Automatic annotation (TrEMBL):
Protein name: dTDP-4-dehydrorhamnose 3,5-epimerase
Superkingdom of the organism of origin: Bacteria
Gene Ontology CC terms, in alphabetical order: cytosol
Positions bearing the site annotation: Participates in a stacking interaction with the thymidine ring of dTDP-4-oxo-6-deoxyglucose: 149
Matches recorded under Pfam families: dTDP_sugar_isom
Single GO term (MF): dTDP-4-dehydrorhamnose 3,5-epimerase activity
GO biological process per UniProt: polysaccharide biosynthetic process
Length: 173
């Protein structure tokens, strides 16, 4: 295996400001229900520091990495990712000089099929991030950003810290 991957069960060495919250899949004969964001979850929602602004869904085919050659970054927004179908690896790199985890990157395996992989992740502002679908079926990701979409807030930065082809090798894609 090329990289070390993080699930909810094996959280270690997290980038400063990254938060994982376990999500519970409630199942019965009528199907499944998962609460994805609640205002009483103070670790992932706070009306002042982690407000709710919007939600979007992205659907990505197997083996595709969003922003493969460049990292995605926000100056003022934090993202909250959940993989609701399929399986993804979310990558976060910390370039923030003032951070105790400057220079570190984390790889999170996310998806609803395994309870240790079903969580919401808070991605701090000014950290670089992207994700890749590692399941055979498309990956469905929902995001609850802390701000409305603003093209002036987001940027792309050259990715020299992570080789997505090594992730493909690790998951035999």
């Amino acid at each position: 295996m090329n990289y070390q991957y993080i699930t909810f069960k094996n959280q270690h060495n997290l980038i400063e400001g990254v938060v994982l919250r376990k999500l519970v899949i409630n199942k019965d004969e009528s199907g499944s229900l998962v609460e994805t964001l609640r205002k009483d979850w103070n670790d992932v929602f706070d009306s002042q520091n982690l407000p709710f602004a919007m939600q979007y869904l992205s659907i990505t085919p197997q083996g595709v990495a969003r922003d493969e050659d460049k990292w995605h970054v926000h100056k003022n927004q934090e993202d909250r990712f959940i993989c609701v179908s399929g399986r993804i690896v979310t990558a976060v790199f910390d370039p923030r000089v003032e951070s105790q985890s400057c220079g570190k990157f984390n790889l999170f395996v996310m998806g609803p099929q395994n309870e240790d992989e079903m969580f919401i992740i808070v991605i701090p502002q000014k950290t670089y991030h992207g994700f890749m679908v590692i399941s055979t079926e498309p990956g469905y990701l929902i995001n609850f950003p802390t701000r409305l979409y603003n093209p002036q807030d987001e940027g792309r930065v050259q990715n020299s810290q992570l080789d997505w082809n090594k992730v493909r090798d690790d998951f035999k894609l």
